[in-house]
Amino acid sequence: MLFSRLSARARLIPVILLALLLGGCSANWGWYVVSPTTTNGLNNLKFLLGGLQYTIALSLTAIAISIVIGLLVALPGISSHRGLRAFNRVYVEIVRAVPILVLILWVYYGLPQMAGIAISVFWAGVIALALSDSAFQAEIFRAGIQSIARGQYEAAHSISLSYRDTMRFVILPQAIRRILPALGNQLVYMLKMSSLVSVIGMQELTRRANELVVTEYRPLEIYTILVLEYLVLILIVSAGVRWLERRMQTDER
Predict the structure, then answer these.
(1) Which of 124, 154, 133 is nearest to 91 (CA)?
(2) CB neighbour list of residue 202: distance below 8 Å, 6 or more residues apart
(3) Residue 182 CA: distances (Å) to CA of 20, 112, 241
(4) Share of the chain above pLDDT 70, in %
(5) CB of 183 within 8 A of CB of 244?
(6) pLDDT at res. 34
(7) Distance, CA of 104 to CA of 124 (rounded, Å)
(8) With 70 as the cut, is the pLDDT of residue 11 above it?
(9) Alpha-helix residue ranges (DSSP H) falling in 98-218
(10) Does the pLDDT of residue 184 top 50, yes or no?
(11) How far apart are CA 11 and CA 7, in angstroms?
(12) 95, 99, 109, 162: most buried, per Cβ within 10 A?
């Protein structure tokens, strides 16, 4: 079944390439705006690629914060205390119910007025993305921790490990190995959702592409380059996550 699916997808590749080639021959396409062979095209490419560092910095900072918050929210979810479990459920349901674009706008425009603080575009994006993702991270960590056999807790208790040390040295290392693919998916998700921060003026990949479209009036070519940028970036991240997953499985053996 898997082989047949891969074969079917492989047969689609020549069709897609043929369509792209035929489209590229159309007189309506203006690849000169992003052609490295011309001065203007090279400058446009450099301008587009200049947003890459902001996309990566925004995504990595947000995912790091969301992992920490998610773990802190997940621990009450596995507690025997009813009130702590209720806190976990309320937090997860409320945060997951708010669309990420709405959260970005609220953090950037609403939070400074409510808290009386000044906040930059970068940190507004980080806070919004981290809060939104933390609810998903909490569920991932909760499922990973609960998947560890009860005997691991009993073994840790038998050698007088505290709850903190049990989580730190016994439970979490095993849980992280199991949830690593899910964490990798969330990083990919974060890279894609970072494009929404362009609505508040963040100079990341999507924002720069939008600005270039306004000046060059060639949306098809420019957004095609934008798609390729995200495609290459996410493929690299996915390959890195798979490598790390194989490395951790090897260490476990």
Answers:
(1) 133
(2) 54, 58, 121, 122, 125
(3) 33, 33, 10
(4) 87
(5) no
(6) 87
(7) 7
(8) no
(9) 100-105, 111-115, 121-146, 150-158, 163-165, 172-193, 205-216
(10) yes
(11) 6
(12) 95
User: What are the tens digits of pLDDT across the range 43-94?
Assistant: 999 999 999 999 999 999 999 999 999 999 999 988 888 999 999 999 999 9
Write out the two tokens for 182: 């899910």
Token pair of 244 as six digits: 């790390």
Decide: 184 and 238 in contact? Cβ < 8 Å. Answer: yes
Identify residue 86 by its one-letter amino acid code.
A
- Interval 102-122: pLDDT, tens: 999 999 999 999 888 889 999
Residues 6+ apart with CB under 8 A from 190: 59, 62, 63, 66, 129, 133
- Per-residue pLDDT, 3: 37
For helices 121-146 and 172-193, the axis angle rounded to 10 degrees is: 140
Phi-psi region of 148 (alpha: psi -120 to 50; beta: other; left: phi over 0): beta
Cβ-in-10-Å burial (0-12, 13-18, 19+) of 238 comes to middle
What domains, with CATH codes, occur in the chain?
53-205 (1.10.3720.10)
Is 196 exposed, middle or buried (CB count within 10 Å of its CB: 0-12, 13-18, 19+)? buried
Mean pLDDT of the chain: 85
- What amino acid is encoded at 62 in this protein? A
Residue 99 has pLDDT above 80, yes or no: yes
Dist CA 48 CA 229 (whole Å): 9
d(CA 13, CA 58): 33
